[in-house]
Amino acid sequence: MKGINRIGITGHFSNQLPRVVAREAIGILNKLGIKYDVDNSFLKTKDSIPLEKFNSDLVLVFGGDGTMLRAAREVPGKIPLLGINCGAVGYLMELDFNNLKRSLPEIVKGEFAVEERTRLELKIKGQKTPYALNEVTISPIINQTLMHYTLEINGKKEKSDVSDGLLISTPTGSTAHNLSAGGSIIKPDAKVFSIISLSSLNREIRPMIVNDDSVIKVKGLQFGRNEAVIDGHKRIELEEKIEIKKGKPILFAVPIKTHIIKEQILPKTLSPSARFLHKLINFKGSQTQAELVSETGLPERTVRRSLESLIEHRLILEKSHKFDRRKKIYRLVS
Question: Is 65 considered catalytic here?
Answer without folding.
Answer: yes
